[in-house]
Design goal:
about 350 residues; alpha/beta; Rossmann fold; 2 domains; seven-stranded mixed β-sheet; six-stranded parallel β-sheet; about 25% helix; binds nicotinamide-adenine-dinucleotide; binds zinc ion
Amino acid sequence: MKGLAMLRIGEIGWIEKERPTCGPRDAIVRPLALAPCTSDIHTVWEGAIGDRHNLILGHEALGTVDEVGSEVRDFKPGDRVIVPAITPDWDSEAVQRGFSSQTGGPLGGWKFSNSKDGVFGEYFHVNLADNNLAHLPADMPLEAGVMLPDMLSTGFLGAENARIAIGATVAVLGIGPVGLSAVAGARLRGAGRIFAVGTRPAAVRVAKEYGATDIVSYKDGDTVEQILRATGGTGVDAVIVAGGGPEILMDAINMAKAGSVISNVNYFGSGLGDKDVLPVPRVGWGFGMADKDIATGLCPGGRVRMERLAEVVKYGRMDPSLMATHVFRGFDSLEEALLLMKEKPRDLIKPVVLLDR
Ligand code: NAD
Ligand code: ZN
């Protein structure tokens, strides 16, 4: 079979591989809709998680089940499914402690395009199919459904970890598809005022649609100063970090008030200086005593998560298809879609690839 792979740091290409084999509790799936992720860009072009050789990329997919193992109960060949980006080992110790994305070590639930071939192949392998697949509702548009495995799950996690009280003021830094999903998540969690920090007109339009009440542009001056001014100097109850380089944490902490949560879902593909560190502002963090918590999290995966996200869409709480600005057709267009994600033209929020099936 054919797949679009990371050949080495800085290089992608099409390769041939054996079709994966199916264990008794697993499934082999063919892609139905695919989306490249900013994380694929960090992985390939920043070498963020180290070198990988001929590893098939991609972790955002809807698919059609091709084969299931003998112990799989709820799925059969031909079923259309949502495939979570994160596919934990549900019988592991980290799950019992409540952190399913970190099974088998830090970020261990992230298998596709990290520790095994991803979903950008003609076939891909899903471990523990009954736990890691969800049925795709028949009337869910593919452009909407393909946002669930990672964008909605991650953006909503940003809002969930931010402990948003009803009426709280929230700032979302970065309004790519993750940040936009975080804006929607903050509204669903009951936020009052929501600042969205970003400049691209396409993203700003969707941010307003998803519930942003204030748009803050760095072109109008320092974003921390703007948000402090707009809140009478007090700052915000929660900051969701969904973009930016190492220094973004400084902004986040400096605009947050006591009792706040800085909820990070951003992937820091690189740090600052030889020590490869992320800076925290000493004074803004109250010399380490400011009652400002920093929360972090990897996209939650698994079947129940995907089923709940599908309910959000089904009952009209938000429309994820608004983020699918560039729609490609056919497996071969995947490379163009991935490179578009790397180039990030101004009108891009998220490219998606639909397959004929
Ligand atoms: P994206 O690149 O489309 O969006 C990030 C946005 O942040 C960009 O529009 C960028 O212009 C903006 N930005 C940069 N510096 C900024 C600043 N100082 N202030 C405000 N905005 C700034 O990326 P995305 O696809 O939305 O993903 C966001 C981040 O989340 C990426 O780092 C991605 O790798 C990561 N991610 C994490 C998880 C997870 O499980 N935690 C899952 C998916 C993606
Ligand atoms: Zn991702």
